Amino acid sequence: MSTIDRTRSLAVPSSTPKTAAEPLAKKPAPHQPAFQKSSFEQSPSSKAQKNGLLGGLIDAAVGGIKDIPRFVEMGANVFNATTVKEITSLFGGAKPDRAQDGMFVGAGGKVLPATTKLGDVPGVTPKNNPNPDKTILYVNGIMTPTAGQLGEMQALADSSGAKVVGIHNATEGLVKDLAQCVTDKLDKGKNPAVDTLADTLYSELKAGRDVHLVGYSQGGLITARALNDVAKRLRVEDGLSPAQVEAKMGHLEVETFGAASTKYPNGPQYVHYVNNADPVPTLTGLGGDVDPLAFLKDAGKGAVVHRFTDGNLNPISNHMLDTLYLKHRVDFDQARRNQF
């Protein structure tokens, strides 16, 4: 288990204690029955607390409603990238999103074969810095066509100050994407994004180069599966001992956001971001602050798991990379010091 997991808080915050300055309730006059005062009458402080709670719920509901048009548009984009293009491709039209599965995505949405060397992919750069000195390899989650991943790559580049290169985890619609998540968890079946990521990491490590990678949602699950594949190759193909494998994989810096994986191999330097209001990592990933199944999960040796609570009443909003998780991201070295 990760050392950071042992610091998981299981305590429920207590209510705010009364201060000495708070007046005591007055006793009823002798001629006045104790129950004469309405049980629904509240003190000013109670009313303020109730109004604050109600206002917070209203704000959360309004925030969730405001996000709905965006999600409708995202759904339309997925439908177009899958069903519509699947049909039109039969008549010589554009290929569906699955045709780019496991391929590299670079600046301008340029898609390159999985055999392309990482250094040859023109990455997305921050808007305020066309020549960053760092590169991040990014794997997206479910229901994300190439254009959607490109937008996430730009947001990640702007947040991190690094060039971002994508490995595309193609979408075939909600049902098939969720089914693939199940097979990824079981480490069964072929996933082109897993294969491309594993091959790229193995090649970079063999060349003596460090790699910084980010996995979001199912992309975190793909990352965990690929890391396990790399560890196996280092043991079997290179004959490295378990200790040597860990040392070799120590050249990998790994960040996950809202990831759906419960276990990660030892060796890489990890920072995991988990929003307690996000059902994806809390139910299918490393879990939230309170998790009765924490003993079954492993964030990786020495991992830092940053848990926080943010969002509204829309669970999809609470899972978004660009509008939620990246607000909480800090520099990787700072995060490794657990300074958020």
Keywords:
340 residues; alpha/beta; Rossmann fold; 2 domains; 8 strands; 11% strand
Write the layout of secondary structure elements.
Elements: H1 44-88, E1 104-105, E2 111-112, E3 135-139, H2 146-160, E4 163-167, H3 174-185, H4 192-206, E5 211-216, H5 218-236, H6 242-249, E6 252-257, E7 269-275, H7 279-284, E8 304-308, H8 321-328, H9 332-336
Parallel strand pairs: 3-4, 3-5, 5-6, 6-7, 7-8
Antiparallel strand pairs: 1-2, 1-4
Helix pairs in contact: 2-8, 4-5
| Order of adjacent strands in the largest pleated sheet | 2-1-4-3-5-6-7-8
Decide which structural class fits the backbone.
Answer: alpha/beta
pLDDT averaged residue by residue:
86
**Strand count:** 8
End-to-end Cα distance, whole Å, is 22 Å
CATH class of the largest domain: Alpha Beta
State the assembly state of the protein chains: single chain
Elements, N to C (H/E): HEEEHEHHEHHEEHEHH
| CATH fold-level name of the largest domain | Rossmann fold
Radius of gyration: 24 Å
Helical proportion, percent range? 25-40%
Largest sheet data: 8 strands, mixed
> How many domains comprise the coordinates?
2
User: Per DSSP, what share of the residues sits in E-state strands of 2 or more residues?
Assistant: 5-15%
